[in-house]
Amino acid sequence: MSYNPQNPLIVQSDYSILIEVDNSLYEEARNDIVTFAELVKSPEHIHTYKITPLSIWNACATGHSGEKIISALTHYAKYDIPEHIIVGVGDFASRYGRLTIIRDESYLVLKSNDHYLAEEIYQNKDVRKYIEKRCSETEFHVNPLNRGLLKQALIKAGFPAEDLAGYVEGESLSLSLLNKTRSGEVFTLRPYQHEASDIYYANGHTHGGSGVIVMPCGSGKTIIGMSCIAQIQSSTLILTTSVTSIRQWIDELLDKTTIMNDQVGEYSSKEKNVRPITVTTYQILTYRKRSDSEFEHLALFDQRNWGLIIYDEVHTLPAPVFQMTASLQARRRLGLTATLVREDGREDDVFALIGPKKVDIPWKVMEKQGWIAKACCYEYRIHLPELLRMPYALESKRQQFRIASENHAKIDVVMDLLSQYRHEKILIIGMYIDQLKEIARHIDVPLLTGSTPQKKRDLNFNAFKSGKISTLIVSKIANFAVDLPDAAVAIQVSGTYGSRQEEAQRLGRILRPKKGENQAHFYTIISRDTVEQDFALNRQMFLCEQGYEYHIKNI
User: Fold this and answer.
1) CATH 3.40.50.300 occupies which residues in the chain?
2) In what order do the strands lie in the sheet with 46-50?
3) Element holding 56 (H helix, E strand)
4) Cys-Cys with 112: which of 138, 216, 344, 549 at CB 3.0–4.6 Å?
5) Closest of 351, 271, 300 to residue 59, by C-alpha
6) Rounded distance, CA 37 to CA 389, Å?
7) In terms of Cα–Cα distance, which of 364, 369, 285, 338 is closest to 482?
8) Which range has the worst mean pLDDT, 8-22, 229-243, 338-352, 518-532?
9) DSSP state of 288
10) CA dihedral 103, 108, 111, 116 (to 10 degrees)
11) Distance set, CA 509 to CA 183, 315, 469 (Å)
12) Is 63 left (phi over 0), alpha (psi -120 to 50) or beta?
């Protein structure tokens, strides 16, 4: 067995990769392996990545080959790579591109590179139902309406299709980015934003035009989205998570591009404006009066000849929008997210229907380059008061979690932190509305929840941004796509069990770059020796895996 002690990688037989951080080749090696392996955890000294079929297919979609992947692993490995890993990576990589989808006049053609695979696919009942006719040993006619459904079936069969059928151009739209914002500031794309939009667009080639860009909160994914619109020059439908986010997209478009007011429309419960650029929410698209009723607003997908559909926070994409997206494969599609982690495990559907991951820049890389704030994370553990111990002991686990989460003693810790950071902008974030109302009464600051009218939300968000108020209490409405650039401290008083996705989004609220030390602080307050502490471990591990300092203090 060969041994290269200066190398930073250990490739293990379970398809995991360990990489030493304190190694002179660390950055060079990490930049190579991040293209074909998923980050699992990144604490201080040893980071762990995992090779999966999906991670290999994502790499192949951006031009990597199995040989190139094995070459990178061999180049940086301390020890010989297990033989079955070499074989397995080659097998995963060989599966991508063996099936292609091309256009043939009014039909699509699914082509295989050999007749054995063609026969295997044809015999798969989940694939065969989307095939209209067999044209030859290796070619099949497919109805264009079944393009997305076929791709879903193929990836679940273990043979993802490379979609080269192209896109409709959509309704023409003239839009460019400004060199100076309408508010008077100099505006240029950051280098990584420029590169990300170029990789996505791929000079208009069929290899581009569909895919996902993964970058931390605060890195400017909205800017990348606008740059993609400018490259494609076509009408665009933007799907996002809230009315607040709708208005932030519209504000950014009007401030930083040549688009005019009458060319941008909000499509929400209050307004139904369908314009060359239309911004809506997943909630409005999935609204229906009863569980057995039709979705009333999915027709928006057909109300203009869209050239691009942007899925903001694509990891939250609800099932009905997945279903509609399956029929939109002729439109260019762009997914934006800080994390591709889906609590429902449907990452393969994102790959099949939105497209492969095109760009993925780790949080700590952005932090090191100064594009997002440095963050320290703290977990404060407090006692559950004596009067709550017996009620807690007698309840179900779900109710125990709520009792622990709503522990009244958390208010004292919140008050101490507010005093400690009285010169900073602070977000207090929680899950339970009664708890948040009680905190709001104690400290006399605005509380924003799902029932807060949009006008009041906007007024308070704007007051926070302008400095008129320095503290806001927010429910889950602030988990996604809320731009509060000066927030430097987040105090989490309750969360959704062990949701890694939520932890990433809440941390992201304070990661916008700051003046001065560019430092942010993220606090979680939990009840010690309860199920809340047990669930917090999952959230804690997510932060440690991203490489953040995590300090635990018993109070």
Assistant:
1) 191-361, 370-554
2) 9-11, 16-20, 46-50, 38-41
3) helix 53-61
4) 138
5) 351
6) 45
7) 338
8) 338-352
9) -
10) -170
11) 23, 17, 17
12) left
Task: Report the distance separating Cα 541 and Cα 547, nearest Å.
Answer: 10
C-alpha span between 343 and 259 (Å, rounded): 37
121/441 Cα distance (integer angstroms): 63
Nearest 5°: the CA angle 233, 236, 240 is 140
**227 C-beta neighbours (distance < 10 Å), count:** 23
Half-sphere exposure of 44 (CA within 13 A, CB side): 2
Which pair of tokens denotes residue 487? 């927030």
Most confident of the ranges 1-5, 34-38, 121-125, 298-302: 121-125
Contact of 220 with 365, CB cutoff 8 Å: no
Are the beta carbons of 430 and 523 closer than 8 angstroms? no
- What fold is seen in the domain 370-554? Rossmann fold (3.40.50)
Write down the pTM of the prediction: 0.81
- pLDDT number for residue 467: 87
Is residue 128 within a helix (H) or strand (E), and if so which, with residue range? helix 125-128
Confidence of residue 419 (pLDDT cuts 50, 70, 90): very high
What contacts 24+ positions apart, CB below 8 Å, involve 540-544?
540/377, 540/379, 541/41, 542/500, 542/503, 542/504, 543/377, 543/503, 543/507, 544/41, 544/42, 544/43
b/e burial code for range 74-110 (CB count within 10 A of at least 16 → b): bebbbeebeeebbebbbebbebbbbbebbeeeebbbb
How many CB atoms within 10 Å of residue 121? 23
- Please check whether residue 500 is in contact with residue 539, taking contact to mean a CB–CB distance below 8 angstroms: yes
Query: Tokens 């602030």 appear where?
Result: 478
CA distance 430 to 432: 6
Token reading at 474: 């927010």
Residue with token string 């591109």: 97
Tokens 């009905």 -> residue? 320
Residue type, 110: L
Closest CA to 520 of 495, 484, 472: 484
Residue tagged 């990300």 (tokens): 196
Beta strands in 242-287 (DSSP E): 264-267, 277-281
Residue closest to 476 by CA, chosen among 426, 436, 425: 436
Q: In this structure, what token pair is assigned to residue 164?
A: 């080269």
Mean pLDDT (the chain) is 90
CA distance 14 to 179: 50
As a CATH number, domain 191-361 is 3.40.50.300
Cα–Cα dist 231/209, whole Å: 10
Q: Answer for the pair 170, 234: CB distance below 8 angstroms, yes or no.
A: yes
Radius of gyration of the chain from its Cα atoms, rounded to whole angstroms: 25
